[in-house]
Amino acid sequence: MTEHVEQFHVSSAVVSVLPAHQSDVMHRLAAMSGVEIFHHAPGKIVIVLEGPDTGAMGTRLVEIACLSGVLSANMVFAQAATLAGEE
C-alpha cells in the first residue's frame, strides 16, 4: 500500500461591510462552500475558511472582497495540517 498525503488548510478572516449590506453579504457567505460565519457585529463579519490549498483559499477571499457591499476581506490566521492515510 502507498501512503496518501493530503493537506487541509484553515484560516480566519475579517470581512468589513457597509452596514446596509451586511445581511445580504452574510447570506452570500453562508451559501459559499468552505466558508463559515463565526461571529458578526455591525460592519464586521468574522469567517472561517477551509480548503485544499492556499491558492483555493486566496481565490475565495478575493471573491468575498469583490462582493457588493464589502469594503475589505483580510486574512487574520492561517494553518495547514497534513493528513496521512493509506490508499
Itemize the secondary structure elements and their pairings:
Blueprint: E1 3-17, H1 22-31, E2 35-41, E3 44-51, H2 54-65, E4 70-86
Q: What attributes characterize this protein structure?
A:
elongated, 4-stranded antiparallel beta sheet, 2 helices, single chain, 54% strand, 87 residues, Alpha-Beta Plaits, alpha+beta
Provide the β-strand percentage band.
over 45%
Q: Residue share in helices?
A: 25-40%
Give the neighbour order of strands across the main sheet: 2-3-1-4
CATH homologous superfamily (4th level) name: Lrp/AsnC effector binding domain/regulation of amino acid metabolism (RAM) domain
> Which H/E pattern describes the elements?
EHEEHE
Number of helices: 2
Low-pLDDT windows of residues: none
How would you state the average pLDDT, rounded?
Answer: 90
CATH topology: Alpha-Beta Plaits
Gap between N and C termini, in Å?
6 Å
Number of strands: 4
The number of distinct structural domains comes to 1
Shape: elongated
Q: Tell me the name of the CATH class.
A: Alpha Beta
Structure class: alpha+beta
CATH architectural grouping: 2-Layer Sandwich
